[in-house]
Design brief:
Number of strands: 4
Number of helices: 7
Largest sheet: 2 strands, antiparallel
Bound molecules: zinc ion
Radius of gyration: 38 Å
Distance between the termini: 103 Å
Mean pLDDT: 79
């Protein structure tokens, strides 16, 4: 009723509208104060700064706008997650750079076929190109030869060698089917 006197409003309908608008603004303001507190809580580790941000937002609307401008760009959770990922990546990199012999623990490199300390076999070389193969590989990724099939490898080597030397390939090897026996159909009927 004091508002009537304040604004000099006689019309009760208009006064109700003004009251509702003020109530609406107050609700928005309280919601912004709460939002500022919860957002600052997720972005700022220091509780003192969180309290400062919340106190600033008590200044209606402007405080929250200022907070939006100066707030940290990332959530604390994201920062933590990124730090963990960085540490994991660094650990992976260190593991790649420093491998160790599985038998004696001597420091080795990825391309070593034998351990230089205990002389044990670390990796099998590709039968075609001689590059060291990981035991999990099904084919040699360098020359596409199948792993563990020496005949395939021997067939592939002369073809490459003759192509380089300039002599024509033998007719028998060219006509022979390249598929291994197990892939052929068992019987015609
Ligand atoms: Zn060793
Ligand atoms: Zn190879």
């Amino acid at each position: 009723m004091a508002l009537f006197a304040l604004f000099g409003i006689e019309n009760s309908g208009l006064a109700l509208a003004v009251n509702l608008l003020l109530l609406f603004l107050v609700v928005i303001w309280l919601a912004l104060v709460y939002w500022t507190y919860s957002d600052a809580h997720r972005r700022i580790a220091d509780p003192m700064l969180v309290a400062c941000a919340t106190a600033a937002s008590l200044f209606p609307f402007i405080g929250t706008v200022v907070y939006l401008i100066v707030r940290p760009p990332e959530y604390l959770e994201d920062v933590r997650e990124r730090d963990l990922e960085m540490a994991a990546a660094q650990a992976r990199l260190a593991q790649l750079e420093h491998q160790h012999c599985q038998y004696c623990g001597f420091e080795t490199e990825k391309t070593f076929l034998r351990c230089p300390s205990c002389l044990r076999r670390l990796k099998e070389p590709c039968t075609v190109c001689g590059k060291p193969l990981d035991p999990r590989w099904k084919i040699c990724p360098y020359c596409e030869a199948e792993v563990g099939q020496a005949s395939e490898g021997r067939r592939a080597r002369p073809r490459r060698a003759t192509a380089a030397a300039g002599t024509p390939p033998r007719q028998s090897t060219a006509e022979r089917p390249a598929r291994p026996a197990r892939d052929r159909p068992q019987s015609a009927g």
